[in-house]
Every structure is written in C-alpha cells, then in structure tokens.
Write a structure and sequence with these properties.
Blueprint: H1 2-15, H2 27-37, H3 39-51, H4 54-60, E1 65-79, E2 89-107, H5 109-176, H6 182-217, H7 241-251, H8 253-273, E3 279-291, E4 301-313, H9 321-388, H10 393-427, H11 433-440
Antiparallel strand pairs: 1-2, 2-3, 3-4
Helix pairs in contact: 1-5, 2-5, 3-5, 4-5, 5-6, 5-8, 5-10, 7-9, 7-10, 8-9, 9-10
C-alpha cells in the first residue's frame, strides 16, 4: 500500500509542471489564432479602419469644391394679346445651358478646426485599437492559464481520489481481519465520496474553461503547454512601485484615450465658437447657354458668361443656436477633463495592484514551494507512523489533504504571478507580443 500510495502522490505532484505532449500549443500560438479569429478584435480593426477616414473628411472642407451642371429644355410658347387688333404668335424652340463652378474657402474657422479634429479622431482611434489589442492579450492569457489551472485541479483531484481509494481499500481489509475499527472505514469512505464530488466539479470546470478559450480562437482547444520545470518567478524591472505608477499615469492606454478625447472636446469648443466668425470664399463660374429666338424667322442667341469673385458672409443672428452649442461643448469638455483625471487615478491604482500582485505572488510561490516540501515530508512521516501504530488513518488522510492543497495553491500562485505580471505591463500601456514571447519562454517546449 505504501509504495502505491507514494507513487500516486508523486504523480499528482508532477502533473502540473511535467512535460506536455509534443504537439501542445504554446501561449504565443494561441494568441495568434485569437488574433485571426476573435470577433471582438476583428470588429475593433474594422472600426479603426473606418476612423482613418476622418482626416480626409476634415481636409475636404479646406479644398476647392467644383461642380458641373447642364440642362436642356423644350419650350412651346403661345402668345396672345388682349387687344384683338394685335395678332398673337406661337413658337417652339430649345434652351440649353452648361455651367462649371468652382469655390475655394479662404477663411472658414470651423473648417480649419474640423480638420484638426479629424487628426485627433485618427489619433484616438489608434490608441483605442491598441487598447483592444492589449485587452486581447490579457483575455487570451487569462483563458490559457485558466485552462491549465482547471486541468491541474482535475489532475490533483483524480490523484487524490486514487490515493484515498487505496486508503479505503486498506481500511476495509484491516477491518475484516480485526486490525482496525469500522470508524476508519467510514472516515475513508466519507473522504472518498467528497473527492468524487470534487472531481465532478473539476471536470465541469475544465469543460467551461476550454469553451471560453474556444470562443477566442474559433476552433476546438488544443492541448496546452504548461510551465517548465525550472520556471521561477522574477521581480519586475524596475523593481520599484513608483516608476510603474508614473508610467501608468502618463502612458496608460486608458489615460491616452481620455487625453485624446479631451483634445477633441476642446477643439469642439473652438469649432462651435467659429460659427460666430465671418467666412470668405473665392468662387468662379463659366456658363455657356443658348436658345432659339421664339420668333418666326428670327435668330437664336448663344451666351458665354464668366464670373470670378469673393464672397464675404457675416453671421448676425441664428436664433441663439450657436451660443447653445458652445455651452454644450464646454460642458462636454469639462466632462472629458474629469474623465481624464479619473483615468489617471485608475491607472495609478492598476499599476499599484499589478506591482503588489507580482511581488506578493513571488513571495507566495516561494513560501508554497517550501510548504509542499514540508507537507510531503509530513505525509511520509505520517504513513510511516501509521505502519508502526502511532498514527491513525485519519492522520494520513489529513496529511494527504494538506499536501494536495499546498500543490493546488502553488499552481494557483504561479498562474496568479503571470496574470499580475501582464496586468502590470498593461497598466503602463506597454503590453505587446514581445511580452507574450517572454512568457512563452517560461513554458515547456
């Protein structure tokens, strides 16, 4: 019993950090699958593409506007005089006209600001798309390690079930030969039933986590590479909180989005005030027209008209709508300013949480590694004590439970370290594929 029991425990301890199948997909491969398949990211990419048109749309208000028009009409005129002594007349003739007109804004305050707003919208779209890309990395990583952790929990539970099953079988044999009481059998049976229920829950959790990953990559989840045997968490660089907080406050993507939004709203105030300003346009037109005379025996006419000029327009009163829009824009600007301050504070908090998460998980991993070794020694001693009669089967089951709990907590702490590491870099607005490559180096090849 002792050898079999120790073998099952050793197997469970090695499951999480043992070598994975040769065809197991790593984190970078899963990320690239999600990059091509995730509908959230694809929708953001389409939105970004659409936003790139804001700049040429704004530029259009500063460029010349040209139009060509042409018309032709048939005229049937019946002329009668009220004086019966004067004869009337009838005439049928055509009228034709072709006109080309060009206008060039020389001074339109609103158009100039609209062009600047177009550039701001493009910059905002760039940052928003970067934020979605960063969020995809976090979602993929979370889903990836959730699958690994759920699988590890299932493996631990199954190994624990095997070990308890061996204890149950031994308790029954000992009771049959009179070396133990029925209490030992009942205790082992209760532990076995409990771990069976936990196994069912762990199996369901694995299925849920796999379906979550499949939603990202658009295909059945493959086997995944787990952490390498020699994986050891390291402190962030720099290993101090305040530099990370400052980077998050100035470079965090949520902060940059809020800053670009404030820039846009400030420009909107100027654009709406521009409705009070006069406008100056240059214009030119060329018209070629002709028509019949409408008089029998008469001659038609052809006319060519060339016009060039300047037009000044000064708005005087528009019902108060301009002032209302300015007040609205000022309120939106104030909101954007408060949103920016909130984004900065949130970024600072996220950086602090990420940094503390990394450092505390490093300490937890080291403590739990020591706890696993201690609990393994305690289990070995308890098994030996049971053999010589100084420990009971309940003691063995308790020691066994502590060992599996320590192993499970160690796996959780290692995955929490990776998640905190990614969130810290994301808070600083610097998370990209290179960081995934670094994490990939911590996995089994």
């Amino acid at each position: 019993m002792t050898r079999a029991h120790r073998a099952s425990v050793t197997l469970a301890c090695a499951l999480l950090f043992s070598g994975t199948p040769a065809i197991a997909a790593n984190l970078l491969e899963i990320y690239r699958l999600a990059l091509a398949s995730d509908p959230v990211y694809s929708a953001a990419r389409a939105s970004w593409t659409a936003s790139q048109e804001k700049m040429p749309q704004g530029l259009a208000g500063l460029l010349p506007q040209a139009s060509l028009s042409a018309s032709t009409q048939y005229n049937d005129r019946d002329l009668r005089f009220r004086n019966p002594t004067i004869a009337g007349s009838q005439a049928q003739y055509n009228s034709n006209s072709t006109s080309v007109s060009v206008s060039q804004p020389l001074y339109r305050k609103q158009n100039f600001v609209a062009y600047d707003q177009g550039k701001t919208q493009v910059a905002l779209a760039d940052v928003q798309f970067a934020s979605v890309g960063q969020d995809l990395i976090l979602r993929v990583s979370q889903a990836y390690f959730d699958v690994l952790l759920a699988s590890a929990n299932l493996s631990f539970t199954q190994a624990q079930k095997t070990a308890i099953g061996q204890q149950l079988a031994q308790a029954k044999r000992n009771f049959e030969v009179g070396n133990a009481t029925i209490t030992d059998t009942h205790e082992a049976q209760a532990r076995y039933d409990l771990v069976t229920a936990q196994e069912i829950g762990a199996q369901a959790d694995v299925e849920v986590k796999n379906r979550t990953l499949e939603q990202l990559i658009g295909r059945p989840a493959p086997a995944l590479a787990g952490p390498a045997r020699n994986f050891s968490p390291t402190p962030p660089t720099p290993n101090a909180m305040e530099p990370w907080v400052e980077r998050a406050r100035t470079n965090g993507l949520a902060v940059r989005i809020a800053q670009e939004t404030l820039n846009f709203q400030s420009q909107d105030v100027v654009r709406n005030r521009g409705a009070h300003y006069p406008t100056v346009d240059a214009y030119a037109s060329l018209t070629d027209s002709g028509q019949g005379s409408g008089v029998q025996g008469g001659s038609g006419t052809d006319t060519t008209s060339k016009i060039i000029g300047l037009q000044l327009a000064i708005p005087l009163y528009q019902g108060g709508i301009v002032n209302s829009r300015v007040r609205e824009a000022l309120a939106n600007e104030d909101k954007a300013r408060q949103d920016l301050e909130n984004a900065r504070r949130s970024a600072e908090l996220a950086a602090r949480q990420g940094y503390l998460g990394v450092t505390s998980n490093i300490a937890q991993v080291r403590a739990l590694e020591a706890a696993v070794i201690s609990n393994q020694s305690s289990l070995d001693s308890t098994i030996l004590g049971q053999q010589v009669g100084v420990r009971t089967q309940v003691d063995v089951l308790n020691a066994q439970q502590l060992l599996f709990s320590a192993r499970r907590d160690l796996a959780q702490a290692r995955y929490n370290y990776i998640a905190s590491f990614l969130r810290l870099i994301a808070a600083a607005g610097e998370l990209d594929e290179e960081d995934l490559q670094r994490i990939n180096s911590w996995l089994e090849k």
